[in-house]
Inverse folding.
């Protein structure tokens, strides 16, 4: 989501200023994230480094409304819903500064974008969320759900495809609740309309919460039937214990998560991604092992493991934290399990021929995606569709047979 916001910021800046490297810049814009405490501290250190180097700093992103310290250090600031005011923020950074933090209903689908070159275009479909998670500070920064216009999003996708982008990443805090602030679930309709756009491209649907996916499950399955939609499901469970989920105020159960996963797997060969918070204050030893057992049962392909981070102003801030060494050990055990599962899942593709889309360059070769968004290391041109045979794998990617042979020859 922040990358999509950066595309907007870059568009307005490039029309009014000369863009340069950080070293040569007079003003540096930092588009910040405030999900966990570690990130906040890292960004504050970066602001101090830049200020000590004589730079003016404009702070954008979530920390403008979450971190008083970061806000006070910056010369100017713009909140996530005031991106089009970045030019004024930069100019005022030399003259006392200004903070554009008032709430607005800007429809980002209608704002200018200047994307980096490549095959991927990121498209935001909404701002804010309908959740009230006890651990999350992001809502302080982005507020309640505000869905962008269907027509605006469709026009943005169409324009991106015409410019040559081949992978469209739909993003928001929760793609599953898109449209609910306007009266109904609109994600399936959005996907169906995008699928009608001319061109050979793929769409990756970003994270959706289990309760919203479950509420529109049949419609989602129909929409995902399009060949243009990656068979990729990012659905965060966060814990395998319903009591912990209740304490987290997640508004879903483990059973909701399982129902959605089973339905997608019964209809498609999917890549499943989920998120887990380890060490939430009310997570007992038994709770942790319930999460461990759930992962072992479901065997997700991608697991984003985050150690609990206390965020100021959230209900969970008042809870007594679990000792750090316990959280670290639980995280280690879960990570080891996920690596084993990832390798087991990927080994099923050895010897198979799959169609991939080459999406981004790596250090030596190219990253491509299968129709289920599984990562494949191969060769080729950005935006190219090609057939590859899988020769080997790691827990987090597949390797083109030709490159596998090349690697084996290099080690002989």
């Amino acid at each position: 989501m922040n990358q999509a916001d950066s595309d907007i910021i870059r568009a307005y800046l490039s029309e009014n200023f000369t863009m340069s490297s950080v070293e040569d810049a007079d003003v540096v814009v930092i588009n910040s994230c405030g999900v966990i405490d570690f990130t906040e501290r890292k960004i504050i250190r970066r602001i101090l480094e830049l200020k000590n180097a004589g730079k003016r700093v404009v702070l954008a992103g979530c920390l403008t409304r979450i971190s008083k310290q970061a806000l006070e250090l910056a010369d100017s600031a713009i909140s996530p819903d005031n991106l089009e005011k970045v030019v004024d923020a930069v100019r005022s950074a030399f003259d006392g500064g200004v903070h554009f933090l008032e709430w607005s209903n800007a429809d980002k689908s209608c704002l200018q974008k200047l994307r980096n070159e490549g095959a991927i275009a990121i498209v935001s479909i909404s701002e804010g969320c309908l959740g009230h998670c006890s651990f999350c500070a992001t809502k302080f920064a982005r507020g309640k759900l505000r869905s962008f216009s269907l027509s605006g999003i469709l026009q943005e996708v169409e324009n991106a495809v015409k410019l040559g982008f081949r992978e469209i990443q739909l993003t928001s805090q929760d793609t599953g609740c898109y449209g609910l602030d306007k009266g109904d679930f609109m994600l399936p309709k959005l996907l169906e309309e995008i699928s009608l756009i001319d061109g050979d491209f793929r769409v990756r649907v970003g994270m959706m919460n289990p309760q919203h996916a479950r509420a529109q499950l049949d419609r989602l399955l129909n929409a995902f039937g399009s060949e243009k939609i990656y068979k990729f499901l990012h659905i965060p469970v966060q814990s395998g214990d319903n009591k912990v989920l209740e304490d987290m105020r997640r508004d879903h159960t483990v059973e909701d998560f399982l129902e959605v996963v089973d339905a997608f797997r019964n209809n498609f060969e999917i890549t499943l991604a989920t998120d887990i918070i380890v060490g939430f204050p009310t997570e007992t030893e038994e709770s942790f092992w319930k999460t461990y057992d759930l992962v072992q049962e479901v065997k997700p392909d991608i697991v984003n493991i985050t150690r609990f981070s206390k965020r100021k102003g959230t209900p969970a801030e008042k809870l007594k934290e679990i000792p750090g060494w316990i959280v670290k050990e639980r995280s280690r055990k879960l990570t080891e399990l996920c690596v084993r599962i990832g390798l087991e899942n990927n080994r099923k593709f050895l010897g198979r021929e799959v169609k991939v889309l080459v999406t981004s360059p790596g250090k030596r070769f190219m990253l491509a995606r299968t129709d289920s968004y599984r990562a494949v290391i191969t060769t080729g041109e950005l935006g190219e569709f090609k057939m590859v045979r899988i020769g080997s794998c790691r827990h987090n990617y597949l390797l083109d047979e030709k490159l596998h042979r090349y690697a084996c020859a290099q080690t002989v």
